[in-house]
Specification:
mainly alpha, 881 residues, two-stranded parallel sheet, 44 helices, ATP binding, extended, nucleus, hydrolase, repeat
Length: 881
């Protein structure tokens, strides 16, 4: 079948027509948002003339009916509510002019039944404007404290608390506004779906940008409708939009009626400015050691020009960032036990040294400090530091309960609070928090996304701030952190150049490529390898801040001069070349393997060493091994596990020494022995003084050769050891069954001698460890069986009544009903039965309970795995019980 050559042209035309329709609908929405004057009324005499002479029924004309319908409609819908000042029902404070305009815009959206996006910059009072809208809905057609007449409730807590709240508060309906989190909405979606909601306010709405997420399915009905428009996404495709300024302007027309965006610089003139200073710190001696260790572990990556694994590069970046923050983030780095909190917490991290100098100065100036970090374990270290320095502090991270979270914020913001430091994780503490009582923000480390750091700064730089907010960003010099911050600054600069001009940015530019990650890792590696000494100086904090302000100004000046092409490629140089294609310089890429070789640090030689041994180790070349010492040609083959009498080995050794004497054998020197010459001399003396066996000793040797377990070979011995591991050393009956070709009496006899003389075996430590591991598994099975019996014995009908406490280990693939069946059936069949898992699988397939549960019935691979690895299944059962 031949393709229609005009198909693509028709599709483009059809797409353009649908786009024109969307623009017309947008204009219609914009028209209704503005107050309409309505149609002119018809005069009375004109209306009389419109009536025909014979119209005794006084029928309305089309124009009369239109006028009446328009009048009725105007009474209901064309009343446009507009506030000129802060509404009287807002008791908490007065709305600013731009907030009043935002409230009017929200009201116009509501009255016309249109959704919208309030996209004001952080700290401009989006929450207050939204609460004021809800207050308008309450009075004319924040909640407590902002609009006291609004009855607001908050749904949050554990499972029991939520159940009580739903039963006692939510379902009775004695409330106007329900405030909750995204997580609570997902957990209680069945309850929320019972209400006919009048208005939905979504804070941090990026959480619903994925239309396939559970949150979007619960809270939004417009997303599925949006997806019904065929090829909607293709209109906004970057490749189609870039370079087509007219199309971009028309796309903005689509969004303009539904989006309101103001920034602080335009509307909030009374807010003091924000000043950021980048403070560059050095690495401590311990940090340099760990940084070098991380790079050396993956030196092949640093010096490779071949295919790179992105996940491996990301892991290296994460480890290097941890090292820049504090070496104690690595297990084994902190000295101890005992673990102490003293000056070593500061001196082993360059950032902590600067922080220890900066905080006293800020406290003396009367400032209050917010410290943000990406890593909660860094907050643990900072918490220990604050306790050691007697700084009163609050802490907030992703694990902080809601009640403690709000209590900490209130304690920090209350008038006259003695809290000096507030430590927050950047992701958890950067959203929805007002900490305007602080005037200093310290970014202990930086995020990949510069918007996240801006949100963190705006916790203090927002309405209500009366001081200039100072932001100190810590950056470890000559490390990967420098490149991370440079990249973030370039992203912000690119945003100001492109996005604010009304153009679109290629989203692929925000993705971190493998080559870029490799360049970040390589940055500063040679500098770190060059020395092992600390770079931390005793420089005064004022000089550190002055130097940081100077470097910050230099970077800002460099960024301001950069062109858009350099920003798109995330490169500091502005030159272009014919070798540049799709953001890559292929000329430099070819040279990478040769010009960017990173030389690892030199090995330190110890003061005392043997030259031969050193070069043998360095070159991985060993000396030729000396030939084995000769043995008599007809000596019996005896093994240690056959447990011959010790006297036999003495006679055999004597026979060997005399044989070596007769052939003139000379003992070679073993260079690996500490006293090689003395050992050689003693061994040679034994040979020189050796005597042959006499007749009595020869007869004794033949007799002793019959007193060992000569009919036990290596295979029999291995079966005996594995049987002891499987059944335990005391279960001799089952052990005897496992050893093939041996009677129970033979096994009993061998077992008695084995446990009496097992220390004579060469690998006794390995053998005993193997047996003891098996016995430990046996004891564990016994304890699990007892616990299983106790657990099942508590219920009359365990198949229906058994309750399982999962903790945090509840899986997603199996239900509690299925787990209950497995445990109860396992108890019924016998936990310690050998083929219990095969029988359990058959019971599942025969049970009518799982007749249509094809997922569970088809888990043959899982059952065989459990059968092969019984240990893992036992551990799971033990946890469940």
């Amino acid at each position: 079948v031949e393709a229609d050559p005009t198909y693509e042209e028709k599709m483009q035309t059809d797409r353009a027509n649908r786009f024109e329709y969307l623009l017309k609908q947008t204009e219609l929405f914009a028209h209704f948002i503005q107050p309409a004057p309505g149609r002119p009324r018809i005069k009375k005499d004109e209306k009389q003339n419109l009536l025909s002479v014979g119209d005794y029924r006084h029928r309305r004309t089309e124009q009369e009916e239109d006028e009446e319908l328009l009048t009725e409609s105007s009474k209901a819908t064309n009343v446009c509510t507009r506030f000129e000042e802060s509404p009287s029902y807002v008791k908490w404070g007065k709305l600013r002019d731009y907030q009043v305009r935002g409230l009017n815009w929200l009201i116009s959206l509501y009255e016309n039944g249109i959704n919208g996006i309030l996209a004001d910059e952080m700290g401009l009072g989006k929450t207050l404007q939204t609460i004021s809208l809800l207050g308008y809905m309450k009075h004319y057609r924040n909640i407590p404290d902002g609009v006291p007449t609004l009855r607001a409730v908050c749904l949050i807590g554990d499972k029991d608390q939520r159940a009580a709240f739903v039963r006692d508060v939510l379902l009775p309906g004695e409330w106007d506004v329900c405030v909750t989190s995204y997580e609570m909405l997902i957990k209680e979606k069945s309850v929320f779906k019972k209400f006919n909601w009048r208005y939905l306010v979504i804070d941090e709405a990026h959480r619903i940008k994925n239309e396939k997420s559970k949150l979007s399915e619960i809270g939004t009905s417009y997303i599925p409708m949006l997806l019904l428009i065929q090829d909607f996404d293709s209109w906004f495709d970057t490749n189609n939009c870039l370079g087509d300024q007219k199309l971009v302007e028309r796309l903005h027309m689509v969004l303009r009626p539904f989006l309101l965006r103001r920034i602080k610089a335009d509307v909030e003139k009374s807010l003091p400015p924000k000043k950021e200073v980048k403070i560059y710190v050095g690495l401590s001696k311990m940090q340099r050691e760990w940084y070098t260790r991380i790079l050396m572990k993956d030196i092949d990556i640093l010096n490779s020009a071949g295919k790179l694994d992105k996940m491996r590069l990301l892991n290296i970046l994460m480890q290097l960032r941890k090292c820049c923050n504090h070496p104690y983030l690595f297990d084994g780095a902190e000295p101890g036990p005992p673990y102490t909190t003293d000056m070593h917490l500061v001196t082993n991290s360059g950032k902590m040294v600067v922080l220890d100098k900066l905080l006293p100065k800020l406290k003396e100036q009367g400032s209050r400090v917010l410290i943000f970090s990406q890593m909660t374990r860094v907050l643990d270290i900072l918490e220990d530091y604050c306790m050691w320095r007697n700084y009163e502090y609050c802490r907030l991270d992703g694990q902080t309960p809601h009640d403690e979270r709000q209590a900490s914020i209130n304690a920090y913001n209350e008038p006259g609070s003695s809290k000096f430091v507030f430590m927050l994780s950047t992701r958890a503490g950067g959203l929805g928090i007002n900490l305007a009582t602080a005037d200093v923000v310290i970014l202990y480390d930086s995020d990949w996304n510069p918007q996240v750091d801006l949100q963190a700064m705006d916790r203090a730089h927002r309405i209500g701030q009366t001081k200039t907010v100072r932001v100190f960003r810590f950056i470890t010099d000559n490390t990967v952190e420098e490149r991370i911050v440079e990249r973030a600054e370039m992203k912000l600069r690119l945003d100001s150049i492109v996005i604010q001009q009304g153009r679109l940015v290629d989203q692929n530019l925000n993705k971190l490529g493998k080559d870029e990650m490799l360049q970040m890792i390589r940055h500063g590696a040679t500098h770190v390898f060059a020395s092992k000494e600390s770079e931390i100086t005793d420089e005064d904090i004022d000089h550190i801040l002055e130097r940081g302000a100077k470097k910050t100004a230099e970077m800002n000046e460099k960024l301001s001069k950069m062109g858009e092409s350099s920003l798109r490629n995330f490169t500091m140089d502005t030159e272009s070349s014919v070798y540049n294609f799709e953001g890559e310089d292929y000329r430099e890429k070819q040279k990478m393997a040769f010009t960017e070789w990173i030389e690892p640090p030199k090995r330190e030689r110890k003061a005392n060493y043997a030259v031969d041994a050193y070069f043998r180790e360095a070159l991985r070349v060993s000396e030729p091994k000396a030939p084995k010492a000769p043995r008599p040609p007809k000596q019996p083959n005896v093994q240690d596990f056959q447990f011959f009498p010790p006297r036999l080995f003495e006679l055999l050794e004597k026979e060997i020494l005399y044989y070596r004497k007769t052939i003139g054998y000379k003992v070679p020197r073993n260079p690996d022995l500490p006293n090689a010459a003395q050992a050689q001399k003693e061994e040679q003396l034994k040979i020189d003084e050796a005597e042959p066996l006499n007749d009595e000793e020869l007869e004794e040797k033949e007799k002793l050769l019959t007193q060992g377990f000569t009919n036990w070979n290596k295979r029999d011995f291995n079966q005996f050891i594995k049987a002891n591991e499987k059944w335990g050393r005391d279960d001799i009956e089952n052990i005897a069954r496992e050893v093939e070709g041996k009677t129970p009496e033979e096994v009993i006899e061998y077992s008695a001698v084995f446990w009496e003389r097992c220390n004579e075996l060469q690998d006794i430590e390995k053998i005993m460890a193997q047996i003891e591991r098996g016995e430990a598994r046996i004891q564990r099975r016994i304890s699990i069986k007892k616990a299983l019996d106790t657990k099942i014995g508590r219920y009359k009908a365990p198949f229906h009544q058994l309750r399982i406490s999962y903790g945090t280990n509840k899986g997603k693939n199996y239900t509690e009903e299925e787990d209950r069946f497995l445990i109860c059936m396992l108890h019924k069949l016998g936990f310690d039965k050998e083929n219990v898992y095969d029988e359990l699988r058959q019971c599942i397939r025969n049970s009518p309970q799982f007749r249509f549960d094809w997922f569970l019935k088809s888990r043959t691979a899982m059952v065989s795995m459990v059968f092969q690895n019984q240990h893992e299944f036992e551990l799971k059962c033990k946890h469940v019980l």
